[in-house]
UniProtKB/TrEMBL annotation:
It catalyses: GTP + H2O = 7,8-dihydroneopterin 3'-triphosphate + formate + H(+). Converts GTP to 7,8-dihydroneopterin triphosphate. Keywords: Hydrolase. Pathway: Cofactor biosynthesis; 7,8-dihydroneopterin triphosphate biosynthesis; 7,8-dihydroneopterin triphosphate from GTP: step 1/1. The keyword Protein biosynthesis does not apply. It comes from the Bacteria. Belongs to the GTP cyclohydrolase IV family. This is GTP cyclohydrolase FolE2. InterPro entries: GTP_cyclohydrolase_FolE2, GTP_cyclohydrolase_FolE2/MptA. The keyword Hydrolase applies. One of its GO terms (molecular function) is GTP cyclohydrolase I activity. Pfam families: GCHY-1.
Amino acid sequence: MNAVVLPDVSTSETAPSLTPLEWVGMQNIDLPILIEESGYMRALQAKVDAQVNLPARHIKGIHMSRLYRLLDGVADQVALSPGLLERTLHDMIATHRDCETNGARLMLSFELLVRRFALLSEGLAGWKAYPVHLHAELMEGKLTLRARVTVTYSSTCPCSAALSRQLLERAFLDAFAEHPHPERESVAAWLKDHATLATPHSQRSHAHVEVDVDTATPSFGLLMLIERIEQALGTPVQTAVKRADEQAFAALNGSNLMFVEDAARRLRQALGERYANLAVNVEHLESLHAHDAVAWASDV
């Protein structure tokens, strides 16, 4: 029996409008990946966008099934690396020579799961997810690779802290107006009951940091970047905690007051000399306002 030849209108028909297209492909493809770096190895689920350019005006459509099959080489059989992405991009272009393709790009989004220990309680730990986005693009032989990570942290408002301290000061002076030289025990007892007369507002906050990745390195350096961001901010959110850890975190926040502008400047200073084409966006999800406070910084 003769094999039935199936029609392929993407090659047998000509595009009705002779127009080149910047990018064509697929997005939100589910794909398992393996991340390995700095002693960290974990299989994760990613969403992948895969696209090529279509400069040939007369070609009706690209070969999307070829792109899909190539992504299987990025799956969790081997660890994801800059070199693996570069090879895949070259293959994406090579499989579309008949479309005159000379550019390809891959975008991967996933969450890096990292085990974080409590501040004080020995052995107490939990998992924290860090959203990651990788953008790899090969255009006319030139490769660019950028990584964006998001770190969640706590920010306490310096203005709110100053206002709270002023209220506490006034209340203290009123309480001891007739006792110019109060005993330590009396002051301690008063503070125990009234030190939270007013408390500064703090909120969950996000730092989105995007940098160039050295394509000659074996890994993306994601964990190192995350660690430097958390060190610069000083108050990353916690996972599992007991009361002692919660108290230690409260102390960290009290000694680490910051406006959104402070956070952006800290990251710019801490990362600017280590990473190329740094771009920072911070968001303080206000507990005082119904809107958010935001700031951007870059080394451009």
